[in-house]
Amino acid sequence: MGEAKRKQGTDSGSNMPAKGPIKGIIIGIVVVLVVVLAVYWLTRPVADPDELPTAAEGAGPFPAHEDRVGVSVGPEDASVVVREFADYQCPGCASFASVAKRIKDEFVASGDVRFVYFDFPLVDIHDNAMLAAQAARCAGDQGNYWAMHDRLFAQQGEWSTNHNAKGVFVRYSEELGMNPARMQRCLDTELHREDVEASLALAKRMGVRSTPTVLVNNIPMGGAQTWPKMKAVIERELETTKP
C-alpha cells in the first residue's frame, strides 16, 4: 500500500504543468505587445494636412493691438501667435491646459511663438470664475501669473464649487512662494476686476461663444485642439510666415 501511494503521488506530480515555460511565454507576449505599441506610437500619422483648420475665406488678421487686454508670454514680434479665450472654471479649459503648456514649452520657449491668454469667465454659470481670473492677475503682480494659472487649472476640482474660493487662492499664493497678505488685499479690493472685464468685453466683441476658443494667428482651431493638430498648424504657420 505504501509503495502504491508513493507511485500515485509520483504520477500525480508528473502531470503538474511546468511553471517556468508558462511564465516565459507570458513574458514573451508582454514584450511583443510593448514593441507593437511602441512601433505604432512612433509611426502613427500625426495629422493629415488636408484635415487641418484654415482661416475663413477673406478673414483678416487678428487685431493684435487687442492683445493688451490679455496676458502674454513670448516675443512680441513672433510671426505666429496662439490666442486662447478661456474660463478657469471650465472643465474643457482645464483639459486644454496640458496642450497649452506644451505649446509654451516647445514653441514659446524657443522664441518662435507668442501665447496670449484672454479671460472669458462664464459668470452666468461659474460662480468662482471671475474671482479665479482676478487671482491669476493678482499673482502676476508678484511675478507668478503663469504659476497660478497652471495651479488653478490643475486644482480646479478643489476650488470650483468652494464657498471660500478666495481663501483657497490665498493659500495657493503662499504655497507658490508669494506674499499671501498681498494676494488677500488684491482680491478684497478687486484690483484687477476691470482688467478681467476688459478681456471679457473683447471676447464678446470677437463673437467668442464657448471656452476654450483657440486661434493660431487668425485660424480658429474649433474642435482641433489636440496636441498633434495644434503642433501641425503651428509648424505650418511658421513655415509659411518665414521671411
From TrEMBL:
Coiled-coil stretches = none
Q: Name one GO molecular function term.
A: oxidoreductase activity
User: NADP: present as a keyword of the record?
Assistant: no
Cross-referenced InterPro entries: Thioredoxin-like_fold, Thioredoxin-like_sf, Thioredoxin_domain
Keywords assigned by UniProt, alphabetized: Disulfide bond, Membrane, Oxidoreductase, Redox-active center, Signal, Transmembrane, Transmembrane helix
Show where the Thioredoxin domain sits: 41-192
According to the record, the segments passing through the membrane are 21-42
Q: Which family does it belong to?
A: Belongs to the thioredoxin family. DsbA subfamily.
- PANTHER family reported for this sequence: DISULFIDE BOND FORMATION PROTEIN D (PTHR13887:SF14), GLUTATHIONE S-TRANSFERASE KAPPA (PTHR13887)
Protein name (Swiss-Prot/TrEMBL) = DsbA family protein
Question: What's the source species for this entry?
Answer: Hydrocarboniclastica marina
